[in-house]
Input
Amino acid sequence: MIVEVFQEQRYDEMVFNHYGTLEHFEKVLEINKHLVHKHILEVGDKLELSEFKENFKEIKIEALWE
Output
């Protein structure tokens, strides 16, 4: 998804607002190499915020009582 910045915003803040975490921050930087040297995104900057598959572990829950 291509997102256009409508107000000045920190790069990490934009990523956190989209994903709810900074886990994908490095990946977003790699995808948007044209913005890699910016700390503050300016009005009109466009960045791609891809959807990433989450790696969830299956947890087996055992009962305390049978």
